[in-house]
Amino acid sequence: DGGITQSPKYLFRKEGQNVTLSCEQNLNHDAMYWYRQDPGQGLRLIYYSQIVNDFQKGDIAEGYSVSREKKESFPLTVTSAQKNPTAFYLCASTAGQGKTGELFFGEGSRLTVL
Amino acid sequence: AQTVTQSQPEMSVQEAETVTLSCTYDTSENNYYLFWYKQPPSRQMILVIRQEAYKQQNATENRFSVNFQKAAKSFSLKISDSQLGDTAMYFCAFMKPLFGNEKLTFGTGTRLTIIP
Q1: Is B85 helix (H, G, I), strand (E, B) or coil?
Q2: Which of B45, B50, B100 is opposite residue A101, by nearest beta carbon?
Q3: Are B93 and B37 in contact (CB under 8 A)?
Q4: Closest by CA position to A38, among listed A105, A87, A89, A109
Q5: Is A94–B102 a contact, with Cβ atoms under 8 angstroms apart?
Q6: Which of B7, B37, B44, B49 should we substitute to test contact with A (largest number of A Cβ atoms within 10 Å)?
Q7: What is the distance between the alpha carbons of residues B76 and B98, in angstroms, rounded to a whole number?
Q8: Which of A41, A105, B81, B100 is most buried by its number of CB atoms within 10 A?
Q9: What pLDDT, in 10s, does the model give residues B42-75?
Q10: Cis before residue A8, ω within 30 degrees of 0?
Q11: Is the distance from CB of B4 to CB of B106 less than 8 angstroms?
């Protein structure tokens, strides 16, 4: 079945360490997104990518980095510069035209900084 | 910048009853899309319903329908004959359509509990 796979589901990190969250999709979607979800704040956009080898900052990109070397993959690195990294991270993709706004989400990765 | 407001952090309703979730938004755009997304406990977020602003007719998907009031910038979701599986976080979202640059702005969510 087609879908979006995020890993790991749970991750613990010590302060000062970088961590990379994986996001893979087999939906043949061009656009991919990373959102951060915090209680009472909804979803906030971190980074997004419309095509391979291109990506743009979202509303809260500071302390995060991404790459898009393959259409199927859009990993997110949470760097030590992110001051409050404990959160639930959601990866999503969209088919674009004809399915405007219909995001397909992964199951999420919960990051806890100890 | 667009903003989306969901003023009901939590709601609960008896099974089989009807419940309405509220959403308001602020934009100067005339053409846009509005969405309701559902996030069940420990499960993936999925699209419930979509409304295009230029369409006057309210969108309907089975037991889910919206009341879209463009002038009032209001977009409420009505769930009829509620079921236990409707228990979830519900997010209202706004999108200004830009070719090749679709970004959604989400509200803070409403946690809905269906009581058996």
Answers
A1: helix
A2: B50
A3: yes
A4: A87
A5: yes
A6: B44
A7: 24
A8: A105
A9: 788 999 999 999 988 999 999 999 999 999 999 9
A10: yes
A11: yes
